[in-house]
Amino acid sequence: MKQLSIVVPCYNEAVTLPKLYQEVQQQCLPLAVRVEYVLVDDGSTDTTLSVMKTLAAKNTAVHYLSFSRHFGKEAALYAGLQTATGAYVVVMDADLQDPPELLPQMLTKLQSGAWDCVAARRTDRRGEGKVRSFLSNSFYQVINHASKTQFVSGVRDFRMMTRQMVDAVLALPEYTRFSKGIFSWVGYRTTYVSYPNQHRVAGESSWNIWNLFKYAADGIFDFSQLPLDLSVWIGLASFVMSLIGLLYIILRYVLVPASSVSGWASTICIIMLFGGVQLLCIGIIGKYIGKIYLQVKRRPLYLVKERH
Ligand code: UDP
Ligand code: MG
């Protein structure tokens, strides 16, 4: 019998985790696979770890690891994938926003051999704020123009993959991990199952608008060179404009010598404008250098304090 690993990153999910476990058990019982749980405690400050311990005491198929501190969801996902041993691996959130009812059909699709990955896709954004939906949609438009990697709107991290694809994902050595992009970048045959948006069963999302904004920016910087290209084009445009301006000044000086009047205000404005553009471009380059710096330091993505 093949094994299905269920990887769950958890950050303060003491309330939701038992509910998830119960639902997943129910869905997986009739399936012809051995189920293994890999629960990753991302430095939770509540009793998530003791909940994991209780589950592990009840069921020997439950494995957990606990980070030395909060490292973020991407690190937790990576740690979970590294630990999972199944022929099939599914990644899901602890808050039941990724419905376990989809597991049987995902598995059937994967077992048919026609696909390497089955991802769940929300058909709507019901219950999500208007501003948040608008920003999300804008992000997908920008990144799909900027990057060769395709990003599908409404796809969460909830997906079931074959061992081959998981190994490919793990083989990417990047430090700043943007999973949405990595899953798409590695390729393989991906199909989607649709479901209506779900609410969290309990607790609160740990993402606010500012975090999401930084996450989106990371995606754009990690998977495209659009910001660098933009700064080159802005630089080129201002160079051409200043050449035209220079030509105009020289011509005016030659043709109508008496007309040269000094204009301080406009000069200062233009200096400030180009000073700003230069700082912006340096900032963009700095952002990429920062990423290179993080990468060359080769710090581990996470540290484990306890594992079972
Ligand atoms: N999560 C995590 N580390 C974090 C943030 C979130 O491990 O820093 C986990 C969280 O416990 C949950 C999943 O990632 O299982 C999704 O988190 P959340 O529900 O807060 O995000 P949203 O559903 O709003 O995208
Ligand atoms: Mg959630």
Describe this structure in words.
This protein has 308 residues and is of the alpha/beta class. It folds into two domains: 3-224 and 301-307, Spore Coat Polysaccharide Biosynthesis Protein SpsA, Chain A, CATH 3.90.550.10; 226-297. Helix content is 51%, strand content 16%. The chain is built from ten helices and eight strands. It has helices at 16-28, 48-58, 73-83, 103-111, 130-146, 163-171, 179-185, 209-223, 226-255, 264-297, and strands at 3-10, 34-41, 62-67, 88-91, 117-122, 155-162, 190-195, 304-307. An eight-stranded mixed beta sheet has the order 7-5-6-4-1-2-3-8, with helices on both faces. Strand 1 (3-10), helix 1 (16-28) and strand 2 (34-41) form a beta-alpha-beta unit. The protein is elongated, with a radius of gyration of 25 Å. The relative contact order is 0.14. The mean pLDDT is 88. Uridine-5'-diphosphate is lined by residues 9-11, 13, 42, 72-73, 76, 93-95, 97, 205-207.
